[in-house]
């Protein structure tokens, strides 16, 4: 695939995502939400357990929607849309509904022009869950959409307290059965997880999907490296949405169809919904500029003056104790190629002792695309969005309705290359062992110690990059993740390669790069790419890891949560610059994966000093010379988690 084609697909993906966000023009789903017998069978094949049939699933009718403002403890108005099943709202069935809460900062609904508004149908999520007897409650978080107030930083304490007050309102309604779940993807998924720290008695389950666990390492500074492209573009998107502007990338059709965020419905008394919306939007001018604030951060404990906190102040892992005490059931969803969020999911699963379940698929951000590098790119997601919702409903039916079997506590995961779904109650799966490939003469990787000592020199190439459809960009656009044949890109990198594999090799878990280096600079970014080289010389990307040399110290302290790999604190007290020419050890985790590398293929480790498509440059005024040492006391190596076959 050419770079021109990749760029075209990246732009198209962003336009499509924005069109979906801004238009919401899907027609009523109707029978499209009624699963087939094949859907039930596929759900069981992937997720296990037992399945019901359509005959056992009553239809409560499509959603009826009401929008209004709730007044918070400090007088701030929060915009809320409540979608109720028609048969419950009308009293046709004498049954109470559990509720699914979804707090978003990406507009709870879009204001469509003229007759287009009459064509709007409910989203698949709302239609499916309302027909299944659930109320869906969408909320513009404070400082966003049609809500009043300020957002001084994401998931602020005031914002999280608002979630609790919305839950208070829900359980007071005559239609409520007194049980609530919080669910969502990305920002909304993290908001759902924050609901669990409140100790609200009505909250029984949360589904954080495709969402972070640690703001610093999972999205803003993976390995201490500033994720500049994402933070800048995400900040620009938020600034546009908060000002009720359509983002620049919006398609002509979206601009023609949409005004902006939907106002609340007017109650006929006092200011109109549009007048209140204008007042709310004017107040958003004081919101945090996330990109400006992030540029002043190097260490985990740096406090951005504009935000008034360090990143741990709004990271879910910080509140693990509260989450544990409240014993809320958690079902986390993630994708192998969704930034670092598969690692987020595994950290969450390892640290909770409340009822928990997780799934990691061959997915992009949001799970809309199947992006295994061994299959044609752009393949529709598998299982389908409907089957994914069926599995989520099965989990919620148990915790919110008391129906069905207790969900198994396990991780459902997909092995790429083998293209197979698997399940394990522990992670890494039972039997996994770490095996080392040592950097060796002739830019080779060897399973056994060669008793040689050497060094390879590399001048950092600041034009090297991971392309416009990399795993970090899907987190903004929900685009495909596509790494074309990496052979050309690797010519700009320092490459080491194994001999052809004598048998199939399953890599499932978290690889670790252990490198001894010297540099002519006092700091720098180091990237390690794990790749599969086929007999026809096609190079497939499998995973990557990165570390800023300043943060290389490995701490003996107890980490704030269970990690897979070495513990770097990223604290100011542990920062240490390189001494030019002096050997330094860089030991860091790559992102987790599950992939089957076939017999006759080769394992490749490619080392870089920059990713021009995604991350900040360091240093910014010189091209350092890196020397990678191997053998003897400086035995650089790549450690792989292997499942014996």
Structure description:
- The strands form four sheets. Strands 15, 16, 17, 18, 19, 20, 21, 22, 23, 24, 25, 26 and 27 form a 13-stranded mixed sheet that branches.
- With 645 residues, this protein is an alpha+beta fold.
- The chain starts with a helix and ends with a strand.
- Helix content is 24%, strand content 26%.
- Helix 2 packs across helix 15.
- Helix 7 links the parallel strand 6 and strand 7.
- The protein folds into two domains: 3-424, Alpha/Beta hydrolase fold, catalytic domain (Rossmann fold, 3-Layer(aba) Sandwich), CATH 3.40.50.1820; 433-643, Sandwich (Jelly Rolls), CATH 2.60.120.260.
- It contains 17 helices and 27 strands.
- The protein is globular.
Secondary-structure map:
Blueprint: H1 3-23, H2 37-47, E1 63-71, E2 77-85, H3 86-89, E3 97-104, E4 110-112, H4 116-119, H5 124-131, E5 135-140, H6 157-171, E6 176-185, H7 187-195, E7 203-209, H8 215-220, H9 228-242, H10 252-257, E8 258-261, H11 273-283, H12 290-294, H13 320-326, E9 329-335, H14 341-351, E10 356-361, E11 369-370, E12 379-380, H15 385-401, E13 411-415, E14 420-424, E15 433-440, E16 444-446, E17 454-459, H16 474-477, H17 487-490, E18 494-498, E19 505-509, E20 512-519, E21 525-533, E22 539-548, E23 584-589, E24 593-597, E25 602-608, E26 625-630, E27 637-643
Parallel strand pairs: 3-5, 3-6, 6-7, 7-9, 9-10, 10-13, 16-18
Antiparallel strand pairs: 1-2, 2-5, 4-8, 11-12, 13-14, 15-16, 15-27, 17-26, 18-25, 19-24, 19-27, 20-23, 20-26, 20-27, 21-22, 21-25
Helix pairs in contact: 2-15
GO molecular function, one term: dipeptidyl-peptidase activity
Signal peptide: 1-28
Keywords: Hydrolase, Signal
